[in-house]
Structure formats: structure tokens, C-alpha cells
């Protein structure tokens, strides 16, 4: 089908975003970064005085911000109440708070609805990346990929991305990643998990180009 739906899940630092954008661009598909949506709602909470450690307060506020995701793989902007939030959602303050916010069921219900709506309404097919896309958001996706990599490879990639911005040591980066993954995997509502029918790709020893080629080949088999 022309409107192929591809779900790409996995922990942080496995190359999900780079891979998903490149695959979408190569195949002329749309692209949705669901992590950016969880970051956007977290950013709004931090800016609006919501105590992110208070699940009740987060639940009450969950419906308030308007979040609009661009789906162009070359320029996937996200706006919160009309303002471009693409840069501020990447700060360490947001990264540190996002797992607590995204564990709240009301937040997940809202984001899941938004994600299904976007996936349903694109006529051209879409690559959707996240943690629970293959298991919960789009269980009928045409193709499911689960990316993994060693903790060392993931920390090295992540600290490379942060370089020059908010440079943190490799150890601190590895610890922060491990903490976030433990929270994301351990939460009650749709935790980070590999769908039974997902193709697992270990990216530790692969270049981005190799991972992209692998996924493109898998898409072409189902499209
Ligand atoms: O992918 P990224 O690292 O930007 O995701 C940020 C956070 O958003 C994750 O650590 C996780 O807490 C949350 N998330 C989620 N479900 C998704 C995508 C992201 O809970 N589908």
C-alpha cells in the first residue's frame, strides 16, 4: 500500500530519530516524533508552574496545551500554543522531567489519540518513532522495528549530540540514560517494550547508513 505505516521503537540513544527521519525522507513518507510531543507537554508544564512530581496536578493539566506536530522529515517542527518549541524541548530540564510526565495515564491517553489521528490522516504513509508505537499506539502498523544498542554506544552517541550545547561527561550521560530507560520501561501504562512481531535491529556496530538501508529494505518488503 502507498500509505505504509512504520513503527520504530527503542530506548534513547539507539539512533531512532536519525534513522526514522532518513527512512521517511528516502521513501517520501511523513515522519512523527512522539518523544517530541511528550517533551512539548513537559516543557509546557515546567513553564506553567505545574509540579511534575505531582501526578494529580499533571493529570489535571494534561488537556490544556495545544500541541501541533509537523510531519516533514526534513523539518519536523513542533508548536505549543502556537509557539515553536523545537529548541526548548531539547534542554536538560525537559529531559530530566519527561519520564515522570509521560508516565501519567491522562498524558498518555491524550498523546496516543493525537498520534493515531496524525497517522490516520496522512495519505502518504508515515514513520512514527517512540517507545510504545508498535505495542500500543499503532499495533496494526505494517512494519515494526525495535532498535537496540549497547549502553556504551548509546551514551557515546548522546553525549556527541549534546557536545557544545550542554556538554555532560560520558558517565553522567550514561547514568541519565539508564535512569530514563528504567523509568520508561518500568511504568505501568504502556512501557517501553518490544512488540512480539517487531524486527529487532542492534545498531551497536552499524553506521547510520547501514541501519537506514536495513530498515528501507524491510519497508520495501511490506509496501
Ligand atoms: O525520544 P525522546 O528521548 O525524545 O523521548 C523523550 C521521552 O518521552 C522518553 O524518555 C519517554 O519518557 C517519553 N516517550 C514515551 N512514549 C513515546 C515516546 C517518548 O513515553 N512513544
UniProtKB/TrEMBL annotation:
Main location: cytoplasm
Localization terms from the record: Cytoplasm
Binding residues for ATP: 10-18
Signal peptide annotation: none
Keyword entries, A-Z: ATP-binding, Cytoplasm, Kinase, Nucleotide-binding, Transferase
Pfam families: Cytidylate_kin
Enzyme nomenclature, EC number: 2.7.4.25
Gene Ontology terms, MF aspect: kinase activity
InterPro entries, per database record: Cytidylate_kin, Cytidylate_kinase_dom, P-loop_NTPase
TM region positions: none
Protein name, per record: Cytidylate kinase
CDD domains linked: CMPK
PANTHER family per UniProt: CYTIDYLATE KINASE, CYTIDYLATE KINASE/PANTOATE-BETA-ALANINE LIGASE
Membership in a protein family: Belongs to the cytidylate kinase family. Type 1 subfamily.
Naturally occurring in which organism (per UniProt): Streptomyces zingiberis
Amino acid at each position: 500500500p502507498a500509505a505504509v505505516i512504520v513503527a520504530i521503537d527503542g530506548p534513547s540513544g539507539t539512533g531512532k530519530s536519525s534513522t526514522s527521519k532518513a527512512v521517511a525522507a528516502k521513501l517520501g513518507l511523513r515522519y512523527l516524533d512522539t518523544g517530541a510531543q511528550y517533551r512539548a507537554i513537559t516543557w509546557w508544564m515546567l513553564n506553567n508552574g505545574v509540579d511534575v512530581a505531582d501526578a494529580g496536578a499533571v493529570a489535571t493539566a494534561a488537556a490544556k496545551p495545544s500541541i501541533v506536530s509537523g510531519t516533514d522529515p526534513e523539518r519536523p517542527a513542533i508548536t505549543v500554543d502556537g509557539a515553536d518549541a523545537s529548541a526548548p524541548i531539547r534542554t536538560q530540564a525537559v529531559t530530566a522531567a519527561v519520564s515522570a510526565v509521560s508516565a501519567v495515564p491522562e498524558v498518555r491517553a491524550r498523546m496516543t489519540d493525537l498520534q493515531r489521528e496524525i497517522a490516520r490522516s496522512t495519505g502518504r504513509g508515515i514513520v512514527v518513532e517512540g517507545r510504545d508505537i508498535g505495542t500500543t499506539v499503532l499495533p496494526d502498523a505494517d512494519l515494526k522495528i525495535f532498535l537496540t544498542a549497547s549502553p556504551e554506544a548509546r551514551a557515546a552517541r548522546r553525549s556527541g549530540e549534546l557536545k557544545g550545547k550542554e556538554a555532560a561527561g560520558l558517565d553522567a550521560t550514561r547514568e541519565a540514560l539508564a535512569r530514563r530507560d528504567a523509568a520508561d520501561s518500568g511504568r505501568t501504562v504502556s512501557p517501553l517494550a518490544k512488540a512480539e512481531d517487531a524486527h529487532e535491529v542492534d545498531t551497536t556496530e552499524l553506521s547510520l547508513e547501514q541501519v537506514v538501508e536495513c530498515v528501507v529494505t524491510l519497508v520495501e518488503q511490506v509496501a
